[in-house]
Fold this protein.
Amino acid sequence: MKLRLAIQKSGRLHDDSIKLLKECGIDVSNGLNKLKAEASNFPIEVYFLRDDDIPQYVEDGVADIGIVGENVVYEKNKPLTVLNKLGFGKCRLSVAVRKSENYTGISFLEGKKVATSYPVILTKYLKDKGVNAEVHEISGSVEIAPSIGLADAICDLVSSGSTLFSNGLQEAETILSSEAVLVATNSLDAGKKQIIDRLLFRIESVKKARNTKYILLNAPNDKLSEIIALLPGMKSPTVLPLAEPGWSSVHSVLNENDFWEIIEQLKAAGAQGILVVPIEKMVI
Ligand code: PRT
Ligand code: ZN
């Protein structure tokens, strides 16, 4: 039995999807000119599709699972289960208005026309906020709608903000924060669930490793307890004697987010020769 996974054929999520599979030890060649590919070393078959079609294919059971942006999942609004957030393809769905506009709040949109490729999410948002605005669906180049007089505002994906900026727009409200997720159909048999569990276990290990660094440092023995107290570690740090008497080598793992702060504290506490090494996988 093989699990069927749908990923984007080409576009912003394609490379990171392939990379994630590779980091999970699953080798599939990329999808250029292909509809599907089989992994040689894991019971999985990968389908290369347009991202917008992935929720439907997964709902219909043509694929069992898929990798797609949360923005597409919520817009398509199919009965799917989100199994895991994957940490790439990050962006936000935002309302933007002309830079010249004095935007004071969502009531600005009352009676106005908003152009978007996300009518489902936007309509729900406006309803929740009690705002009556006209949602005008367009499929591409949403950002030019205000300048050609098609709409008073837009609702579109933003990452760096440079598209809004170069079209004379300002971000006014964030409706949704999005990243790529793994979705599954709600009707999976036990065999497929088992393969998904194996895949999820690998994904978790890869994600944990991404946010974590391995750290090695030298410390004078009389400072050891102070230094160890700064290091969280998986269980507790490893301490090994150095050839030079009175010194030890301390090994531990650090979370990316606290990284610089802890390094500063370690130096202040007397740590020397601090080495920081990436971790490839982390199995807990
Ligand atoms: O061909 P297919 O239908 O599969 O691809 P697509 O063209 O519909 O999608 P694609 O490849 O552009 O995006 C796939 C997914 O990537 C989206 O559904 C999001 O989940 C995610 N993603 C992350 C983004 C962005 N960042 C992003 N910046 N999708 C689109 N954009 C666009 C945005 O629409 C706007 O035009 O980039 C522009 C804004 O970027 P900044 O950096 O200028 O703010
Ligand atoms: Zn698309």
